[in-house]
């Protein structure tokens, strides 16, 4: 579900339509004890056999009447949304993107002398984790290379946070307002059409209250099927694809943070709050 946050869909396109490019997304799974597992996924469309569709799917896609399609030379192809994903205890998102993109390229081209399973087993079992003796590990891919670097020794917790991305999307004043809302344990909904930005910003938001720790529900990239969490009575930090708003309206007590338009929309009772209330 987290690998395909908008759901696994079957779509019908014109035969000459341009295929959407593969998209990269990141997500975080949080255990009951607060431990994090970092996920990365490449989502793409793969052609699907029309013969494998059910009658209901055929009707929904407008493919039921083949005679009309043949009569008017209407050529359509069916595609299904798929994903290749990777889970890790470490947020090496840049390296994961290169590796998953390599697997995707292998899956759509071929044949290859080395099977895909061998690439996966090599990356999972043969590549060592960076250590003080070897702080940087270089991994050679078929047409590219990636590096795994030992995390810096820092009092801040290691995560996939990007404060540069946060400031670039909101600016300093809105970021300070967001800090105030987090300290007040508000219901915060981050949204963007760029899935990788959601995780980077959510991690930055939860990390910038250090040495405090966010202990309420935390879902940087929430699948559409789990969006009912926004009705929870407790504070939360949740990120969703902006297409969520095409289908639903968020609860009135939620603070919506639009990372694409650089805008924060607080509820009526919080509109007077400002970062200027923070101690100097």
UniProtKB/TrEMBL annotation:
Pfam families: DENN, uDENN
Chain ranges passing through the membrane: none
Positions of the UDENN domain: 1-280
Lineage top rank: taxon: Eukaryota
An annotated GO cellular component: cytoplasmic vesicle
GO terms classed as biological process: regulation of Rab protein signal transduction
GO molecular function annotations of the record: guanyl-nucleotide exchange factor activity
Protein name listed in UniProt: UDENN domain-containing protein
Native species: Biomphalaria glabrata
Gene transcribed to yield this protein: 106077783
């Amino acid at each position: 579900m987290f690998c395909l946050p908008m759901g696994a869909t079957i779509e019908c396109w014109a035969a000459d339509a341009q295929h959407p490019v593969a998209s990269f997304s990141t997500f975080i799974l949080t255990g009951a004890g607060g431990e994090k597992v970092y996920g990365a996924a490449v989502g793409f469309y793969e052609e699907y056999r029309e013969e494998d569709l059910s009658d209901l799917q055929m009707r929904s896609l407008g493919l039921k009447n083949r005679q009309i399609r043949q009569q008017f030379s209407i050529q359509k192809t069916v595609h299904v949304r798929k994903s290749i994903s990777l889970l890790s205890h470490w947020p090496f998102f840049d390296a994961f993107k290169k590796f998953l993109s390599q697997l995707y390229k292998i899956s759509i081209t071929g044949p290859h002398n080395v099977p895909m399973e061998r690439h996966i087993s090599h990356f999972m079992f043969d590549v060592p984790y960076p250590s003080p003796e070897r702080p940087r590990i270089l991994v050679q891919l078929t047409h590219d290379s990636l590096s795994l670097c030992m995390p810096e020794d820092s009092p801040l917790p290691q995560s996939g946070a990007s404060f540069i991305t946060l400031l670039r999307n909101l600016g300093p004043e809105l970021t300070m307002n967001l800090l105030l809302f987090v300290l007040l344990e508000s219901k915060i909904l981050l949204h963007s059409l760029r899935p990788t930005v959601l995780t980077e910003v959510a991690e930055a938001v939860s990390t910038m209250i250090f040495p405090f720790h966010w202990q309420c529900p935390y879902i940087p990239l929430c699948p559409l099927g789990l969006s009912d969490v926004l009705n929870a009575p407790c504070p939360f930090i949740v990120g969703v694809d902006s297409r969520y708003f095409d289908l639903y309206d968020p609860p009135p007590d939620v603070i919506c943070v639009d990372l694409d338009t650089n805008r924060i929309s607080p509820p009526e009772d919080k509109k007077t709050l400002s970062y200027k209330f923070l101690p100097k």
